[in-house]
Design brief:
The protein is 45% helix and 12% strand. By secondary structure, it is of the alpha+beta class. The chain has a 5-stranded antiparallel β-sheet, with no helix packed on it. It has a 4-stranded antiparallel β-sheet with strand order 4-16-18-19. The longest helix has 38 residues, at 632-669.
Length: 796
């Protein structure tokens, strides 16, 4: 009986560690992690229990040998379960290097594979070793329960807000811990209760039971009293530690795949990859008749249906669902547009084979049908790290990926290489086209990024968008009119240069066809639709992908294309196809769509001709000598021209002074605190440029601060005039605040860069540095410093 009582505490420790692993399985895919953690708990506690009477120095090395052997077993087991190939030593080394980062960046549900199970197993083994040693060798059972309790708390923190509440798990943990403590205290003292008389023993047991019952009731009453108060105080979800870990970053090649479209079009025979597509197709949903003569909305490119040409007439029925149509694979989704370039702002997180569901778009989506599509893809000459796949992937086999839940796109953790093969299973949603004619577009801060158009929108593009949508009553009809206009008036050209900034789009839309205008690749067609759509109030984005034949086959560079999508409330993202029909020549651009001439800001001045001079018979007529000399009128004209030039110069200098003062107030006194910190940094950069020592563009903020200090030291030996010169202040604190604004968030720094105190300190540093450098100039350089217009030319 005593031997059994002695085993209760080690069993309790092992059970508590196993419950910690069970808590972690709420964010893992499958029960494998719970089994491996339970095995680690049993192994570590067993070694310490068996060696309890051995010398203390022997226990730790023996336990570490057991941990190494069990870790190799766990790596091998999880690798087989995850379908990962490779040598055991390589997998173990990779898991040891990346266990913590990949665990904190992995998407939920986490795949139980070597790098995501090694960390919990090692921590569980160490908790078992420490708990068993405290309870057995040191004879402190309560202290022995501390390591499992800390492991359980760590498991709850790692789960965070990513799983539902499991009330029975903490109750079970508390119950097992209480049982272990009761078992440990039952045998304490010399001989336990055996030395007492039977009546005294019975009385002691009765008092003990009464005390325990009273204490338990008191604890339960306290919980019932405090729990509602605590629930009202706690009004937010637990913090997720994953948001503090940076996800994998994109290469320059993948940041804007749109610029690769023209290169692929120029080399159409380049073999990018092979694909095999197999999937069941849902029954088509009839579409309503569109009350307009514009073309139908294109079906989802992931629906394995080629969008019908815009000039095919009203959408009375969907395209037939036959297997002769192609399937489109998505490579990237570009949602951010600043007037210069479309780029990716995705949050790629490490994922296992099973992928979480993609985020629902703002405004919700009405899915009417789904189908499962299996794609087997083998890479040939495709470069970068982005992986092509049909939209809404749910499972990936054969390659480690990172996944962006907002766009449903995939990224490989390493660069693509020839021969890489993987399989993707996608669950492709359908679109309820019956909702489109009456669907509105969502609004709010979640949709603002899909409506951004940059700071300098050309007036003629806004006029063109309004002219195209004249008379269309709904967002869907405006999108159809825009699709039809672009597809009818412009020509596809594989040799068109890349570019989709506002100047490029203006040349594509309004340029002279004889000079290369009004022709482009799918890059210009898709970005023109998306940009004009945003000017019409339509939330848009651009997708880059590939067209593949039904059933699969080789995919070449000629199959690469881009297409736009529009977000509709209650429907989701709907793709459109503004590409022209290759068999139909484009229509000339009508006059009403051409840029309107800009009206003059001032009315034209009408100059009245001078009256004809009259001469009397006695007045001499002007002779040729007077004409050659000029006379007083010429002097007046010459003097007026010179005076006007001086006035213009003075007006220009005064305008520069006023604009620079307004620019300084806008930078330092307006906007949020982080914006004012960045405005102070812009003042420092202007100061260095005015001092004749602008920093190199590639320098980081801290390096610019060092450069500014060197410029200040070089100017400290100059003295002009007798006035005292202020000291050149260091800019290290300002550089730190700039880095905090750009990379660490508004709550970082002392004071935090999101506070007015930080903005005031930044302003003081920038103004002090500019004043110190300016006072070290002679009087005419200080004057030029004030009227120098170069700071006004700095890009925002």
């Amino acid at each position: 009986m005593r031997a059994l009582r002695g085993l209760l505490v080690p069993l309790t420790i092992a059970a508590l560690i196993a419950l910690s692993g069970l808590a972690l399985t709420r964010i893992y895919n499958g029960p494998l992690l719970a089994a491996l953690v339970a095995g680690a708990a049993a192994g570590s506690v067993l070694i310490s229990t068996v060696l309890r009477r051995a010398p203390a120095w022997l226990v730790a090395p023996s336990s570490m040998v057991g941990l190494a052997a069990y870790s190799f077993f766990a790596v091998s087991t999880s690798a087989r379960a995850a379908g990962l190939d490779g040598e055991l030593q390589t997998l173990a080394a990779d898991a040891a290097r990346n266990a913590i980062p990949r665990l904190l960046t992995a998407l939920i549900p986490v795949e139980a594979q070597p790098d995501t199970v090694l960390g919990p197993i090692v921590l569980a083994w160490l908790a078992g070793l420490a708990g068993a040693e405290f309870a057995g060798r040191v004879r402190r059972p309560a202290l022995g329960l501390v390591p499992p309790a800390l492991l359980y708390v760590g498991a709850l923190v790692l789960v965070g807000p990513n799983a539902g509440i499991e009330l029975w798990q903490p109750l079970a943990f508390a119950g097992v811990a209480a049982l272990g403590l009761a078992a440990a205290s039952a045998g304490t003292g010399p001989g336990g209760l055996s030395g007492l008389a039977p009546p005294a023993r019975a009385a002691l047991r009765l008092r003990t039971a009464a005390g325990l019952g009273t204490g338990l009731l008191a604890v339960l009453a306290l919980i019932a009293l405090i729990a509602p108060l605590a629930a009202r105080v706690v009004n937010r979800a637990p913090t997720d530690p994953r948001r503090y870990v940076a996800p994998p970053s994109l290469d320059v090649l993948d940041q804007n795949p749109l610029i690769r479209i023209s290169g692929w079009a120029a080399n159409p025979d380049q073999h990018l990859f092979n694909v095999t597509v197999d999937g069941a197709r849902p029954q088509p949903t009839p579409a309503p008749s569109a009350p307009t003569t514009t073309g139908p909305a294109s079906p989802d490119p992931g629906e394995s249906e080629e969008p019908a040409p815009a000039e095919s007439g009203p959408a009375s029925e969907p395209a037939p669902a036959d297997d002769a149509r192609d399937t489109r694979l998505r490579l990237a989704v570009l949602a951010d547009w600043d007037g210069v370039t479309w780029h990716i702002d995705a949050d790629y997180r490490s994922a296992g084979r099973v992928l979480p569901a993609a985020f629902a778009p703002a405004g919700g989506a009405g899915e009417v049908a789904t189908r499962t599509i299996h794609e087997r893809i083998t890479i040939a000459e495709l470069e970068g790290r982005l992986l092509p796949a049909v939209s809404t992937p749910r499972r990936v086999d054969g390659v480690r990926v990172a996944f962006d839940q907002a766009t449903g796109t995939l990224l490989r953790t390493e660069r693509l290489e020839p021969g890489l093969a993987y399989t993707v299973t996608s669950v492709n949603p359908g679109i309820d086209v019956n909702l489109l004619p009456s669907a509105d577009v969502p609004s709010g801060k979640d949709v603002a990024r899909y409506l951004a158009v940059g700071d300098a929108v050309p007036v003629d593009l806004s006029q063109l968008a309004e002219q195209i949508a004249v008379g269309e009553s709904s967002p869907y009809l405006r999108a159809l009119a825009l699709e039809l206009f672009i597809s009818e008036h412009f020509r596809y050209a594989a040799d068109a240069p890349s570019g989709h900034s506002y100047p490029n789009l203006r040349f594509f839309l309004f340029g002279d066809p004889r000079a290369g205008g009004q022709r482009g690749t799918s890059e210009q067609f898709a970005t023109s639709f998306a940009t004009l759509g945003r000017l019409l109030g339509l939330p848009t984005r651009v997708v880059v992908g590939f067209r593949t034949p039904a059933g699969g086959g080789p995919v070449t560079a000629a199959d690469a294309l881009a297409w736009p999508e529009v977000l509709f409330a209650g429907v989701g993202w709907v793709p459109f196809d503004p590409m022209p029909d290759p068999l139909t020549p484009p229509r000339p651009l009508e006059d009403e769509f051409l840029p309107k001439p800009v009206p003059p800001t001032t009315p034209p001045v009408t100059v009245e001709p001078p009256p004809e001079p009259t001469y009397s018979a006695t007045s001499p007529a002007p002779g040729p000598v007077a004409a050659e000399r000029g006379g007083p009128g010429a002097a007046v004209v010459g003097g007026g021209a010179g005076g006007g030039l001086v006035v213009l110069v003075l007006l220009f200098l005064l305008t520069v002074v006023v604009l620079r003062a307004a620019q300084r107030r806008r930078r330092l006194d307006r906007g949020s605190a982080p914006q004012r910190v960045l405005g102070a940094w812009a003042e420092v950069l202007d100061t260095l440029a005015l001092a004749g020592s602008p920093p190199a563009p590639h320098l980081a903020a801290s390096e610019v601060a060092e450069h500014a200090a060197e410029v200040g030291r070089a100017a400290s030996g100059r003295r002009h005039g007798r006035r005292p010169r202020p000291a050149v202040p260091p800019l290290d604190d300002l550089a730190a605040m700039v880095n905090a604004v750009g990379f660490a968030g508004d709550s970082v720094g002392a004071p935090p860069v999101g506070s007015d105190a930080a903005a005031a300190a930044a302003k003081a540093g920038a103004v002090g540095y500019a004043t110190a450098l300016r006072t070290r100039r002679n009087w005419w350089r200080r004057l030029l410093w004030t009227v120098d217009p170069r700071p006004l030319r700095r890009r925002r």
